[in-house]
């Protein structure tokens, strides 16, 4: 993750993919989770938050050193990478193997004020995670040879990020202007020049020895672990590491803001407009008011969202881009179709902000923002890893005692505070304006070369035995005990209801899906109707107007979304009212005529940009090469098909597609199955289906032929490469588990996978490489992918295919096989370590007609896998040479 992750989320918001910017500030857990604290004699601060949601633990070791302390661009980031290159006691190979055997998520993140190292693993491996982290805290290998190898990968990361328009928009233009002359303007990512000429192993060792000390660190641990005993374990492994004298920090001297305007070319199907401002940092007394201000500006009853509701934007909102102790970069963002002039979108934002400057912010929305901040705090225990990062931000980065400290500050914010902060900091005379406008060519070409030839120069492995303590931890890998017990039932109208009681917080989440497929169910020439229907739900119901509906939700601090995927997020004591509002929006949409024309015009405008966007052209090229011409996946909406849609088409599609007998709902949280059933029978029982139940399952397909396609991508320095093929493997087939084991060995297992080992670690061709097995009822797709410089496309492909062919020939090292199975066993509880994770898994199994304990069935099959059974499955299903290669960006050189 990096500083722009939330901004990328804002772009996704335009198409309903993320709920970040429209949410209230998320200050943190107000629920009564047990918290244990200690400061060791060497100064290490330890906080343990007991969250019994799942047998999982998340650990985040935060060093209070990052981009602010670096002497050369990317120095802190480079050290973060080298922390994975081993120590005198645990080699790089051993570290990778230990981390993989634990499974889960292990990575790091460099910010300006802190660098975080985290593990998200089954609770049984807490001791292993602590030992690994303590070993890195004591000493590192940090060899020049290791840096030379890693620098190739980190330079790939730089060129990859520089290929993304939104990264260039903020990192290379807006943020340097907002923070000019301060440490906050330091380039955390780094540059090719700094990695080629300025940073060395000795420079990184100096940074490590200067800043990486226990008295400059905060250790946050969350999950189903005991606080006092966990602190004793931390003391056991970290207590002997000595404290050290820390140097003085660089002073932050903010310079007066100077207005500026920037333009960057984009490869997206829409234009992004950002008006950026410098707001208070988290040490400023006005920071809490600024957070409430952000929530007010993002409320759907406000004027910024009014730009969306009136058809002037696909998305409009206000959000933090990057926060620091003494300053925050924030931006009013609008996303508009390519058919709208970006300058007009900027003028619309200015008009909204000017009106608020003249008339003040709505007092009722300030009250709502505070109410939602308090309510949202209760949901944070619904994700173990999310809780760990929440506490890390509050304690390690912000220097607060807990996340609730900011919540207390928000409670005291007044309307006058919000108006004052808005007028002082959102100053039109000091705005940094930036535009990212697409310059897409809109064409594809045949690949410059055919499928890569076999490369037999596979670098041999050098296995090393694990330390005895690690061997003991992984001696007996078992199928995890199932910790969820969902109750399934079918309601009188055919609706499928699954209930998973979880009483860790006083909250309830509802996640529902209506099985559908527009490519199968939409009338000929009317593709795009599904999105238009979905876009009309926010415009109100037959009971409430758009504004009234949001007002009702604000009164109970609940969030509702409607569509073929629908949801409710509500405090448990407000469940009944939340269900009533969910049912009203899902079952009684108003579909007003004026809103129809607005949403239709938005769809046509969005699709106009989509037609020439590299992402869309890549999807089209892949589907054209992989599937028959009459396959449903070959049907894509166009501006013409969207323009042909009428209100009658909308009503007809809604009536035929939205059916209770095609709907599955998961309710998870502070509720019993009986209460959940009563709520759905009360508000959804009147929903009935008309006509025979449709079949929306994709058909089986013939094998694809090998081919190669290049999709040009304006401004992209690196190439994004996908190698894919399809086959008729059903998700219910026992071979699925064997291919999942193979996939995990090849590239699905992260850092220690074959693809990462060969393409990144040993050759430095790529920054990231992966493989993926995706399946539905009747067919599957297997994909290998990577991003690299154009001259590395073919060598990387040769290595990838060599790795795959070795597996097909049975050359699976026993250590890799056992590691893959251990990771897959660990994945079972990790997928259930959040409300979202549990709901997603249960909905996925139900949609595929699989038993709800399919996780256990898969785990049993995966653990029983052998090299010979994996080899047989690969030979049966994967064609060695029938790969479709699609390159987005520069073609092979």
Structure commentary:
The protein has 33 helices and 23 strands. The protein is of the alpha+beta class. The protein has a six-stranded mixed beta sheet with strand order 1-2-6-3-5-4, with helices on both faces. A six-stranded mixed beta sheet has the order 12-19-23-20-22-21, sandwiched between helices. Helix 3 crosses helix 30 (814-830), helix 4 packs parallel to helix 9 (227-238) and helix 27 packs across helix 30. 54% of the residues are buried. The model is unreliable at 1-31 and 446-461 (pLDDT under 50).
- Mean pLDDT across the residues is 91
Radius of gyration: 27 Å
Could you name the ranges where pLDDT drops below 50 across 5 or more consecutive residues? 1-31, 446-461
Portion in beta strands: 15-25%
Structural class: alpha+beta
Keywords:
893 residues; alpha+beta; six-stranded mixed beta sheet; 33 helices; 18% strand; globular; disordered N terminus
Q: What's a quick, concise take on this entry?
A:
The chain has 893 residues and is an alpha+beta fold. 42% of the residues lie in helices and 18% in strands.
Give the helix/strand layout.
Layout lengths: L4 H9 L21 E5 L5 E6 L5 E8 L11 H8 L9 H11 L2 E6 L4 E8 L3 H13 L5 H18 L3 H14 L13 H7 L2 H11 L5 E7 L3 H12 L21 E7 L3 E10 L7 H12 L4 H7 L5 E9 L4 E10 L4 H18 L3 H14 L7 H14 L6 H8 L3 H11 L6 E7 L6 E2 L21 H6 L13 E4 L5 E6 L5 E8 L3 H4 L7 H8 L9 H10 L3 E3 L3 E7 L3 H13 L5 H18 L3 H13 L12 H5 L3 H11 L5 E7 L3 H12 L22 E5 L7 E9 L7 H14 L5 H9 L3 E10 L4 E9 L4 H16 L5 H17 L4 H13 L6 H10 L3 H11 L6 E5 L5
Parallel strand pairs: 2-6, 7-11, 14-18, 19-23
Antiparallel strand pairs: 1-2, 3-5, 3-6, 4-5, 8-10, 8-11, 9-10, 12-19, 13-14, 15-17, 15-18, 16-17, 20-22, 20-23, 21-22
